[in-house]
Design goal:
By secondary structure, the protein is α/β, with parallel strands linked by helices. It has one domain: Glutaredoxin. It contains 8 helices and 5 strands, in the order ββαβαααααβαβα. The protein has helices at 36-47, 66-77, 82-91, 98-107, 112-119, 122-137, 151-156, 175-178; strands at residues 17-19, 26-31, 51-56, 145-148, 162-165. Strand 2 (26-31), helix 1 (36-47) and strand 3 (51-56) form a beta-alpha-beta unit. The chain starts with 16 loop residues before the first strand and ends in a 6-residue tail after the last helix.
Length: 184
């Protein structure tokens, strides 16, 4: 019989989007800018003493704006504005259409012509596809899903999404499901 376990998530990479204290526990989060549970998780992670790695889990089948917002975030990253753009998207998830993405880019002082070319370019698309593909291989099935070395600690602190160990491929029940909420 073959081993059907999920692969662990890829280790921290040089091109990952990372923020938080250098000495904080590493939390790799697969998320989608259209997911309301991800917005709650973002608030929680910002307040927690953790080092957060954001990876895209944008599935067009879940929401038609998932991929376009991920591509826009990558275009902002190409102008060193991933985290401010990330926060803007989560702060107002009701406005994710192109005119609102352009307005956010303009408010952040980004070059709009470059932003538009980058979000439609191959590099942004390849990055989003890579994150999704690696998330699927690691067993991500919902957003948000966090990987950490100590999943029990993250759960005890009240992390609002699915939590998995970076070493173990055993899925854990998401906090939202235990509380009677249905994650995406």
């Amino acid at each position: 019989m073959s081993d059907l376990a999920s692969a662990p998530p890829p280790a921290l990479r040089g091109d990952d989007h990372v923020r938080g204290p250098e000495d904080g526990p590493l939390v790799i989060v697969y998320a989608d800018f259209t997911c309301p549970y991800c917005a709650v998780a973002r608030e929680w992670l910002q307040a927690a003493p953790v080092r957060t790695v954001f990876r895209h889990f944008a599935l067009k089948a879940k929401h038609p704006r998932a991929v376009p917002t991920a591509l826009a975030a990558e275009a902002a990253a190409m102008q060193d504005a991933f985290w401010p753009f990330h926060d803007e998207l989560y702060d107002d998830q009701g406005r994710l259409d192109d005119p609102h993405l352009w307005a956010r880019a303009e408010a952040l002082g980004l070059d709009l012509d470059r932003f538009e070319a980058d979000r439609r370019g191959d590099d942004a698309a390849a990055r989003v596809r890579r994150d999704v593909r690696e998330g699927l291989a690691a067993g991500v099935a919902e957003t948000p899903t966090a990987f950490t070395e100590n999943p029990e600690r993250l759960r005890m602190l009240g992390y609002p999404g699915a939590v998995r160990s970076q070493e173990s491929e055993t899925a854990r029940q998401p906090m939202s499901a235990r509380e009677g909420n249905s994650p995406r």
